[in-house]
Amino acid sequence: MGMKGKFLIAMLMGAVLLLGCQSNAERYGEPLIFTTGTTTGVYYSLGAGLSTLWTNEMQKRVASQASNGSIENLKLMSKGEANIAFTTVNFAYEAYNGTGSFKGKPYKGVRILANLYPNVSHIVAKNDKRIQTIEDLKGKSFVFGAAGSATEIESKLVLEAHGIEPDEVKGNYVGFTEATDLMRNGQVDAVNIYSGVPSAATTELISTLDTKVLSFSEEAIHKLTEKYPWNFKYVIEPNTYDKQSEPIITIGQYSAIVIDESVSEESAYQLTKLLWENVEELSKSYSIAKQFDPKKAVEGTAGVPIHPGALKYYREIGVVE
Question: Do you know which Pfam families this protein is assigned to (predicted)?
Fold first, then answer.
């Protein structure tokens, strides 16, 4: 082989090595990939806002990407195709422990960066004398939530905790908008609106239709919090919704930002600090941010470890010792 051929091979090998280094740098350095949710959901728009904030304030680019949400985000992170993601604590727990959707494929590298706001089950039912409790939904038509969503999974657990098997109701699998339409058209008796408090969909249903939010039984609360460590008892205070003079007893779990353990302690610290120091600014554009509270950022993590960089910040502000 002539000198020219050897030179070309050396050039190609150098280019391959360079490309290899670049893809590695992208995974562990620039940019950090933040997977969010579907383009119509709160995760997507909030993720874009956070990415812009982080990129502007850090010496590091954070790129937000649309996805199918909680489960897919964790799968992408476990494969090294993302560094940061939105999810709910139940899926982070399943990923870390290799159960449920991650059975036999534990993702031990997942870490909590911050818990943001609780998703709360609002079991909204027709104001019918025959429906006074959740147990009364047996044999009725019920919206579980969109197929494959966190709402669907939580709805099944809620019914089971009240002694109702999923096939003992006439099930519907649609999102909040369609569920509201079905309720309005009198096609279903009840729906689980699984979202932050106050919930826009619940507010709309309560104010425009003769409906009510049902409380959980204490026995069901006990089952749901004992068996599923991501759940906690949640009280919706009186007058949160129209015609609601009494507190509503329900359960919640947190929506969280998770991060891969490979992200440096310094980067995780900066991400956490910038998030919490800009909550007021974020809440001007994203109403959900009004529910963010740094004092609750490490509550209800169900044993999923917190990233050391985030932990450093929480120690500084006195949230953890």
Answer: NMT1_3 (PF16868)
Report d(CA 110, CA 93) in Å as an integer.
Answer: 9
Rounded to 5 degrees, what angle do the CA atoms 134, 139, 143 make? 65
Same domain, 76 and 153: no
pTM for the model: 0.78
* 195-237: pLDDT as tens digits: 888 888 899 899 999 999 999 999 999 999 999 989 999 999 9
**β-sheet bridge partners, residue 122:** 193
- 115 with 319: CB under 8 angstroms? no
DSSP 238: T
| CATH number of the domain within which 84 lies | 3.40.190.10
Percent of the chain with pLDDT over 70: 91
Dihedral sign for Cα atoms in the order 160, 102, 291, 40:
negative
Q: Which two tokens stand for residue 8?
A: 């070309």
State the Cα–Cα distance between residues 67 and 78, nearest whole angstrom: 15
pLDDT above 90 for 151: no
Residues written for the chain:
321
Unique residue bearing structure tokens 């109403």: 287
> Reduced to 3 states, what is the DSSP secondary structure of residue 314?
helix
